[in-house]
Amino acid sequence: MSLFSLPIRIEPIDGGFAVSSPSRPERLRHILFGSHRDSFYGLHAEEVKGKFVLSALDAIELFAEPAGLVRLYGEDSDSMKHMAVIREAVDLWARPDLWNDVKFDVHSIVVAVSENEAVTTTIETAILQKARQAAFSYDDLVSLSDYFKEGGWPIKKVQAHPEIHVALRLMEPDDMTDEWILETVVRGARSSSYWAPAVKKRALPVGEALPPKWAHLSEVVSQFQHGLIPFISVLDEAPETFVYRQLEDQQVRDFLRHDLAKLQAFGYDVVLPSWLKELKETKMQVRASAGTNRYKSAAGLEQILQFNWNFSLGGQEISEDQFRQLVDENRSFIRSGDQWFQIDAQWIQEIRKLLDRSEDEEWTVKDLLFQELPEELALALEDEDEDDPLVQFQLQQSLETYLTQLQEKKGFPEVPPSANLLTELRPYQQLGLNWLVFMRNESFGAVLADDMGLGKTVQLIAYLLHVHEQTPTHPSLIICPTSVLGNWQKELQKFAPSLNLHTHYGSNRGSLDLEADVVVTTYGIATQDAELLQQIPWSSVTLDEAQNIKNMQTKQSRAIRKLRGTHHIALTGTPVENRLSELWAIFDFIHKGYLGSFKSFQENYMAPIERDEDDQAKHRLRLKIQPFLLRRTKRDPVLLLNLPEKLEQKEYCALTTEQAALYESLIQESVSQLGNLSGFQRKGLVLKMLSKLKQLCNHPALYLKEPFDDAETMLKRSEKLAGIVALAGEVAARGEQCLIFTQYIGMGHLLQHCFSELYDIDSPFLTGSMPKGQRDHMVASFQAGEFPIFLLSLKAGGTGLNLTAATHVLHADRWWNPAVENQATDRAYRIGQQQFVHVHKFLTIGTIEEKIDTLLEQKQTLSDELIHSSQWITELNDDELTELLTLS
């Protein structure tokens, strides 16, 4: 009779249950595991936040035993339901005929024992867990099913006899034969020496063969041998004599791989040679030396590699002929001198195939560096410092030097920047130029994956100048998101005005200018005009924000991956090595087929890495992508020595068709009124118009005072909004923080709406009406890293705040007073800031935002009083103001 009842909470988890006791948590371990020997009575039980994690098998075994004087019951209705599932599973588990209802279905089992699906799932899961615990494979379960149906379930250990111990012994061949021996042996309960019948007694029945002192125990030996039949493939029936079987090498290998685990799981003692217990899988070592006859430089990448193979076994050299004989004999256990070695025959066969392939396939230096060398050689090359590798791969010195240089991204031929490049490259940008030109010369695609702010754009522009000044050829194509199309136009005009630029965009884009040096278009247009663009043999094709083609089955991705260029380049600030589907699509663009089909890539890399976190698969993938990928981060201490503490960058965006129409309409309406107004009224109209135009440049919904639609729809109506949201989202995804300043409350709320809906990010908005206490709490939370994006009103957040956690500052709309903008930027770029700060100023092309920005730059030589307010704009005459306002 129970002394007391204990309510417990039961929650289903993957593969089992989580059990807790809110009322008596300190007693639960003792109550649950008090008689559970396998967990050392709860010592090894897994506890997570007060909950014991039980596999389905644990739950069945624990609840099969009574909990002493304690009655366990479900604390709530859900727990009672789960408790009932476990109780029913316990009853079914012990049923002698359970296995009559077990079916096998393509590496899974189906148990039809209950109408309750949760019960059958628990039973099925527990059987598979019991199999893993016993080291059974799926095939082992299939082969044992008849045994289980005949009463061998649940698995029970063989009971020891108090007088005699019976075992199965495996003995290695002696010097005169290659045959192994598998035999039944016995010893006294207190003895350590085993006895087996002499040769002349092997044919006698068990009772007659035993010594007189054990003759009365013949039934114990016979029962032991009878129990072996389901588990040993070489025994068809229980012999009346002592088991004595001669085994060939293959039979021994099968016994060790398949039978041994089953025997030990059921408690049968198996005596193995002591050396076999301690033996590693193989002691065979293979060394492959690769070189060429005339290799001198990178120009020899098509030369065929010549291989020299060497083999050793236990430190003793063997010839290639001896190795091939070993393969032909398909031996698993080999004696060399006075030592035995276990050889993985399948591995030996793979090495033989490797030898044959090295002779038949004629691998080149290019294959060695970048393409499909066998995995055994690639891994061996990477792990050359390992103490005892199974495969050693050595390179001719010139090859090894070249490979090291390429992997470490140094030692490339220097490429002098063009005299027409109107900027100075930083040292790491010069390295990027050298690398891009080298990859082009060797016909290798390239992924330039530098962090935002490190100047991928200027590195590519320097590359384009070099290419088009060295050998006039076909145009180069740049494909980018619509939101940065204007940025590419401006940067090319600013840094390389000598390049003939053609922008292929818009509904009236017409035919391509094939006399241009550079053609810039968007992903959308490239998809629409795919047939046209695919016909042109481009000098180079560059994808900016290359992750846009990550969905490889989309029309856009397929169309772009079919483009033909002498050189393919991908630009991305995203760490592509962590986004595997994106990685495959990008590499399929820069070097088609290099990572295999997407299906094989899923099987070989995505599933092992994303599902199983397989370190070896990660390692193999890093080896394959390393030569093609140049990635530098702002946290690299070497780069930080060469970077300014603050980088200011203008982000140019085009107006959408809707914005442009509204802009023109507003300008026409306002300019027509200017001539009829007095000076004071005129100033008022100009200032009001400026505010409306800036809101319109941000988003037409702000200008029209419309309610917000869904985020995706709102982004389509404003490239500036799309650019800000994408940039801030990328910053947050990288684990960094940013500030976004705007003059308009509506713009702040619109950004909050987009971040919440698209990224599930709560981005607080600090405005002038916010109480000081709330304001201080927001600042402290941001500094503590509690949220990645902080929106601020330019006036409210422009002074008095310390926000040094931010590494990016985004100005959504321009203030005509540079001092106000600089004060806002200095919330992040100030004393105490230990990180590089990247400032992004968003401008709409051809609008008043861009024109006033140009005027401000021209007026920097004038007095601060002139430019530090917007009043100077109102002083312009009608012609100057009309020119300033006209959309170009």
TrEMBL record:
PROSITE patterns in the cross-refs: HELICASE_ATP_BIND_1, HELICASE_CTER
Q: Where is the Helicase C-terminal domain?
A: 723-882
Q: Quote the Gene3D superfamilies the UniProt record gives.
A: P-loop containing nucleotide triphosphate hydrolases (3.40.50.300), Tandem AAA-ATPase domain (3.40.50.10810)
The Helicase ATP-binding domain, residue ranges: 437-593
The organism's place on the tree of life at top rank: Bacteria
- Which top EC class is given? hydrolase
Keywords attached to this Swiss-Prot or TrEMBL record, sorted alphabetically, are:
ATP-binding, Helicase, Hydrolase, Nucleotide-binding
The Enzyme Commission number assigned here is: 3.6.4.-
A Pfam family cross-referenced in the UniProt record is: SNF2-rel_dom
Q: Which GO terms describe its molecular function?
A: helicase activity; hydrolase activity
Q: What is this protein called?
A: DEAD/DEAH box helicase
